[in-house]
Amino acid sequence: MPRPAARYGAAFAAAFMVLTGCSSSASGPRSTSAAGASASAPSPDPLTWSTCGKDLECATIKVPQEYTEPDGAQIPLALMRHRATDPDHRIGSLIFNPGGPGVSATETLRNLPKTAGTPGAFSPAVLARFDVIAMDPRGVGGSRAVRCLTDKQRADAAGTAFDPAVPGGKPLPQLLADAAAFTDGCAKHQSKKFLASLSTDNVARDIDQVRSALDEDKITYYGLSYGTVVGPMYATLFPHRVRQMVLDAPVDTNLWFGNSLTFLDDVAVASERTLNAWFKTCRTEGTAVCPFGTGNPQAAFDTLIDTLEAKPLKIAPAKGATPGGELDGAMTLETTRALAGDQNVWPLLTSALLAAQDGNGAPLYSLWRAVTVSPFPVPTAMFEAHTAIRCADWRTPTGIAAHKAAATKAVREAKRIGTRAAYAALNCARWPAPNKDRVTKPLTGAGAPPALVVAGRLDPVTPHHWAEDMTRTLHSAVLLTREGVGHGSYGINSCVNSAVDAALIHGTHPADGAVCKTDKPATTRPLVLTNR
Question: Which burial class, exposed, middle or buried, applies to 483 when counting CB atoms under 10 A from its CB (0-12, 13-18, 19+)?
Fold first, then answer.
């Protein structure tokens, strides 16, 4: 998942202006087969590039929907290229996946100049030496984005209130009904064969089709979050096609293809830890720096959630900030979960919470609208693609008893965030398009060059022990740890930036187990102190 700092650029500005008073978004049989990895893949047609923005070119490549049926249905995939700015010293093509799943790589590349200083933002040195290639994975963005709901259903879902005190946000019968409506919609609006084809192994095969169409013998790869599932899959299926690989904010691939309930529990605990880190920093800095809660931010936060859930704040329309609506406790919890996971936006979080305490919910409401993707069910712009890809990969129990037990465990282990994780895999439990031949063997990348694995010490989505597990699973890998809170490290930390650039450009790595300190200490000091 992309980091909040990268997602909240426009909302950050809008919220700041409001604060300052200025005017101005399944399960199926497991397989260890690597069928269709390369032998049956057809040779792709040459790419036809056309200008589609400043320094950008776009193209479309058609790939088999199923590589076991190379002459069957095809899927068009959207590509974008940023040409090397120093073509005389060009190394080759760098393919990246910005995560999600569900994040559009082409839109990420298009917005790259606007997101400098955020995770995944490539340095000028990398942009000079590589053609950076963005491929929207099948089912995402310009590559036949998955849609399971009508516009009305999507709007209704976005306006539905969730109770932050109830596991899953709603009574279980309603959650089951919602899951049925969602999965029935997927089956109605999408081909089941297409849904079943969205697995990560097919995304890796698609990347190799792109490599072939680019006429590259090997590729360099950078993956963020879910992109760290795609990378090891590619290195496992096509080890001799990898030049260098960097895996940032890594997912434990064994867990990703294992029990999804354990996966989601780990995410809930990781998010709870980053929220607790914000509470601790607020207390430690004292009320002169962090006035929220007057020394007890946990109690103040819980009270605010309860108060807003009982009586939501009305949000008046504000040009450039919000179309208006209501801010309740559940929306506040979700927004806080996202922002607490990035220490660079802690000041914004403090400011927004202080404003809400004073009856101004516009900053939090604007930020809530900017949440594009979440590890837990939330009606966002990417929710349908996010869910479909996970369900194509995951092994999810179909019996409700397992989900009840997991919900109880999540709430016990993560007091505030656990309710968000509870029952978050119900859609995959009744997924209508089981993927019977997905690759689930350990992703070792045997035969590929050593990978650089970069992990944050306190990551709200991919906990640090996942990076340790990935490093052990990969046949050859080096682990670099960044101290601090945040999801994704390259682009926001000078020490990490130097290490990643060296890996991508020169193929050199730091010592295994090396640690990068934060560039600046975390603070909860608000951007603007509201009148209190």
Answer: middle
